[in-house]
């Protein structure tokens, strides 16, 4: 639900009660990952989606019912011959949805939505399975480990839940974790659904060229915080890159050494000029980032690799370099080239092959990031 923070924050400010249905578990070829949500207010207005259309009507009805009776429920939707085109997933997958009524004055939910709306890192942990009276109870956990709210009034459970949620927040993961409790309070334990919201990942585009203009737009479309860096002030301007979040005039390698990157950062080198590329890639290939790609012909790529070896870049480091950058789409224009680069970034992130789905036999929805995040781990409250 935190990915709808802008709209939900407005609902809170307007005093609207609503119900939110959140995907907490996914199996098979389901269209949405854990964390996908549909919200319905008291006037029947709906935002978001849990399945891309397969079960939206049934989930909408569950939200309306939750608004009426104030009860949190967990429902399972899967493929079936008889109901495939009614309330089943025609794609053949299975999803479990947690439907929670939320009052406009609910402090934990309101604080979570407000934090996400401000772009702050936060994790919302909810009881997705356990004693009926706990279902839907929530904690808001901050990066420093502090938290707001309570699951059942017992400090041990709250502390354990907060610690688990913080661990997931640290890595930006959304998914389920089981906490075993003693039989006197929670027979069978509780399953927490932890939804992490972290600042968007970075895309740094080096080289203020025409291809970069189109790539900035593609990066913003994919949800990246996009920076353009070039040593030439005449080209690195706001007029040329109005959609970039940042424009930096500096030598690329010098900027990369001083700026913050992490394991989600994408680096796209579009300069294909040795005096920029070699020192930049020498630095980039030794950073723990998600993606390093460089533009240029195959001849440029071979010459670049030779120069990188000469300055001490090892074969293992060179193997991380995606060059020439982009998938083979036959791209010609800057926009087509940006699309091919964006497609390779998505494929690298999600484990895709880049081949056409028609006739390939490869799974459409792979068990990576979102699917792994939906897996269950177990912990015991102290």
Approximately how much beta-strand content do the residues carry? 15-25%
How do the strands line up in the largest sheet?
A: 8-7-6-10-9-17
Oligomeric state as shown: single chain
* Backbone CA Rg: 23 Å
Largest sheet: 6 strands, mixed
- Gross morphology: elongated
Number of strands: 17
Structural class: alpha/beta
Instruction: Give the low-confidence spans.
Output: 81-88, 368-382
- Fraction of residues in H or I helices: 25-40%
**Distinct helical segment count:** 11
SSE topology string: HEEEHEEHEEEHEEEHEEHEHEHHEHHE
- Overall pLDDT score: 86
Distance between the termini: 30 Å
What tags apply to this protein structure?
single chain, 382 residues, alpha/beta, six-stranded mixed sheet, six-stranded parallel sheet, 11 helices, 17 strands, elongated, disordered C terminus
Any chance you could write out the topology, listing elements then pairs?
Elements: H1 5-13, E1 18-27, E2 37-41, E3 46-48, H2 56-69, E4 73-78, E5 94-102, H3 107-117, E6 122-129, E7 138-141, E8 147-149, H4 155-170, E9 175-180, E10 190-197, E11 202-206, H5 210-221, E12 225-230, E13 246-249, H6 252-258, E14 266-269, H7 274-284, E15 291-294, H8 298-310, H9 315-318, E16 321-322, H10 334-350, H11 369-373, E17 376-380
Parallel strand pairs: 9-17, 11-12, 11-14, 12-13, 14-15, 15-16
Antiparallel strand pairs: 1-2, 1-5, 2-3, 4-5, 6-7, 6-10, 7-8, 9-10
Helix pairs in contact: 1-3, 5-10, 6-7
């Amino acid at each position: 639900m935190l990915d709808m923070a802008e709209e939900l924050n407005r609902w809170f400010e307007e005093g609207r009660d609503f119900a939110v249905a959140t995907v907490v578990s996914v199996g098979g070829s389901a269209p949405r990952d854990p964390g996908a949500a549909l919200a319905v207010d008291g006037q029947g207005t709906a935002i978001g989606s849990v399945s891309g259309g397969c079960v939206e009507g049934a989930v909408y009805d569950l939200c309306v019912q939750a608004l009426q009776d104030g009860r949190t429920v967990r429902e399972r939707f899967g493929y079936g011959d008889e109901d495939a085109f009614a309330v089943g997933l025609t794609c053949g997958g299975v999803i479990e949805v947690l439907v929670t009524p939320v009052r406009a004055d609910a402090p934990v939910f309101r604080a979570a939505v407000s934090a996400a709306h401000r772009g702050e890192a936060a994790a919302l942990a909810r009881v997705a399975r356990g004693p009926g009276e706990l279902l839907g109870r929530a904690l808001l956990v901050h990066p420093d480990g502090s938290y707001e709210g309570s699951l059942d009034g017992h400090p041990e459970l709250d502390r354990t839940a907060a610690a688990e949620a913080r661990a997931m927040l640290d890595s930006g993961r959304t998914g389920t974790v089981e906490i075993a409790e003693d039989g006197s309070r929670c027979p069978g334990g509780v399953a927490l659904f932890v939804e992490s919201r972290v600042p968007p990942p970075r895309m740094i585009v080096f080289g203020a060229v025409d291809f970069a203009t189109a790539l900035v737009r593609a990066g913003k479309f994919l949800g990246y915080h996009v920076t353009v860096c070039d040593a030439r002030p005449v080209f690195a301007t706001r007029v040329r890159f109005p959609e970039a979040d940042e424009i930096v005039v500096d030598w690329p390698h010098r900027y990369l050494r001083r700026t913050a990157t992490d394991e989600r950062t994408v680096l796209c080198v579009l300069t294909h000029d040795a005096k920029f590329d070699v020192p930049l890639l020498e630095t980039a290939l030794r950073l723990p980032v998600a993606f390093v790609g460089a533009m240029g012909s195959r001849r440029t790529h071979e010459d670049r690799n030779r120069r990188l070896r000469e300055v001490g870049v090892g074969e293992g480091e060179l193997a991380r370099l995606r060059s020439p950058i982009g998938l083979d789409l036959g791209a010609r224009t800057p926009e087509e080239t940006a699309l091919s680069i964006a497609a390779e970034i998505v494929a690298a992130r999600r484990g895709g092959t880049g081949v056409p789905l028609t006739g390939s036999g490869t799974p459409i929805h792979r068990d990576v990031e979102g699917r792994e995040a939906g897996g269950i781990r177990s912990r015991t409250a102290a």
